[in-house]
Design a protein that fits this description.
Blueprint: H1 2-8, H2 12-24, H3 34-44, H4 49-59, H5 63-77, H6 87-127, H7 132-135
């Protein structure tokens, strides 16, 4: 504890208090990291229902929660082939993105030019107003 205290520049008393607070909370309220959830799924995969229930009680996890974690892990590992982009497809996508960005820049420039021309025409009209008598 002392080494951690020196390394983090936090007093040992503060670290002890934080540890005691964390340990005083029920296990189900503690945050489970992704790694810990996956390890829990692996640890309970081969267990029967009674063993799994005992494990859940011991670790403060609801069986439904464990099943949800199992489903999420399965879903993450079962990515369909269509979702994986092929090398040719990513090159084509990059090429298309470059083309679209080039077109966007061109249109931005054209829009800026049109806005500048509009501002200039309004200034010209303000400086040299057209007389209505000249048109008639």
């Amino acid at each position: 504890m002392e080494a951690v205290s020196r390394e983090l520049s936090i007093s040992a008393g503060t670290l002890e208090r934080w540890r005691a607070d964390a340990l005083s909370r029920p296990a189900r309220e503690r945050a489970w990291t992704a790694r810990a959830r996956f390890e829990a799924v692996l640890a309970t995969a081969a267990m029967d229902e009674a063993s799994k229930g005992a494990w859940c009680r011991e670790n403060g996890v609801y069986p439904q929660e464990l099943e949800r974690w199992r489903g999420a892990a399965t879903e993450a590992l079962a990515e369909p082939e269509e979702a994986r982009a092929s090398l040719g497809q990513t090159k084509a996508d990059r090429r298309r993105i470059k083309e679209l960005e080039r077109e966007l820049r061109r249109k931005d420039k054209a829009l800026a030019e049109a806005a500048a021309l509009l501002v200039l025409s309004k200034k010209m009209e303000a400086i040299f107003p057209k007389d209505k008598d000249e048109d008639a």
